[in-house]
Write a structure and sequence with these properties.
Number of strands: 13
Structural class: alpha/beta
CATH architecture of the largest domain: 3-Layer(aba) Sandwich
Shape: globular
Largest sheet: 6 strands, mixed
Number of domains: 2
Order of helices and strands: HEEHEHHEHEEEHHEEHEHEHEHEH
CATH class of the largest domain: Alpha Beta
Number of helices: 12
CATH superfamily of the largest domain: Mur-like, catalytic domain
Strand order of the largest sheet: 8-9-13-10-11-12
Strand content: 15-25%
Length: 334
């Protein structure tokens, strides 16, 4: 969003001609390769499956963003070590003299980056200072402290959740690396609206607000979503079983949600775990059935959240189909 707006307003140096977005967000860009100019910026969200094969061409992007690395797709990768190795291919073939790494400032990522590169110099590590997005960097191995610091204390966001402020810190650090002035980047980000299926507000009916977080296909993303609201919450969980540990999600749902409607292959396990943790949950055969039950329990001021913590396969083609159905049901269209 920042880069697209900066391209339109000509406020980046060097100037960005056009921004292309693809990969795991939306579409492949292979068909438009002839149209992409050297002055353009290409933004790709890359899955572990895509990154698994990049060593074949020894490629990594000029700016690599690593938000976190937590267990996922272990049914395909086999082990967390193999999954982590695939994810780290995003920066494995970078040129340190030219390229930039932006990474979440967590102990696990610091340890992985230190193991891969020998030190953390040159890495923009982002996070929050209170609620203020910040990014810090150790400029060279010759210094033993973070001697560069960026912060955006005036940032205002129109999307909920502490995690979105952390995401904002990552986006602002990237914009800084690409020559967008910090104050202008923060102002541009203030106009951002949630992406489809990523904690997106899709309806408000009878005083109840509905959020589509269908892109939440991991326990970690569902935990983040559950922690984003202070209002009374009803949540829809469950889907395809990828072998992830869902107990933390169930325990968080028991603490934060007044009711959990559980669907899909993992529905029975989740409902049982929520109940054992002291919450209220039930299993439903489909998303429409779950929505009927949730609507019957929701009261004005409540929030209904679809954040499955699981993939959509089985009942749906992908997370988009699941999210679109949720939005239609929330608006009373299905």
């Amino acid at each position: 969003h920042i880069l697209t707006q900066a391209a339109e307003r000509g406020c980046a140096a060097p100037r960005i001609r056009r921004v292309w977005v693809g990969g795991n967000i939306g579409r492949s860009l292979l068909d438009v390769l002839p149209e992409i100019d050297p002055a353009d910026v290409v933004v790709l969200e890359l899955s572990s499956f895509q990154l698994h094969r990049t060593p074949l061409v020894r490629w990594s992007p000029h700016v690599a963003v690593v938000t976190n690395i937590t267990p996922n797709h272990l049914d395909w990768h086999g082990t967390f070590a193999a999954y982590s190795a695939a994810k780290l291919n995003i920066l494995r073939f970078q040129d340190p003299a030219r390229d930039v790494i932006v990474a979440g400032d967590t102990p696990d990522l610091r340890r992985l980056l230190d193991h891969l590169h020998g030190d953390l110099s040159g890495v923009w590590r982002y996070g929050l200072d209170g609620d203020v997005p910040v990014a810090v960097q150790q400029s060279t191995p010759a210094v033993d402290c973070d001697d560069r610091r960026l912060c955006w204390p005036t940032l205002r966001l129109d999307v909920p959740g502490r995690h979105n402020r952390e995401n904002a810190a990552a986006a602002l650090a990237v914009a800084h690396a690409l020559g967008v002035p910090d104050d202008e980047a923060a102002a541009l980000l203030g106009t951002f609206q949630a992406l489809p299926h990523r904690l997106q507000r899709v309806a408000e009916r009878g005083g109840v607000t509905y959020y589509d977080d269908s892109k939440s296909t991991t326990p970690e993303s569902a935990l983040t979503a559950l922690r984003s609201f202070g209002t009374p919450l009803l949540v829809i969980l469950g889907g395809y079983d990828k072998g992830s540990d869902l107990r933390p999600v169930a325990e968080e749902a028991a603490r934060r949600a007044k009711f959990a409607a559980c669907i899909g292959q993992t529905g029975p396990v989740l409902a049982d775990a929520v109940t054992r943790a002291g919450g209220t949950a039930a299993v439903f055969p489909s998303l429409p059935a779950a929505m009927t039950a949730v609507r019957a329990r929701a009261e004005p001021g409540d929030t209904v959240l679809l954040s499955p913590a699981c993939a959509s396969w089985g009942e749906f083609t992908d997370y988009r189909e699941r999210g679109l159905l949720f939005a239609r049901l929330a608006r009373g269209e299905g």
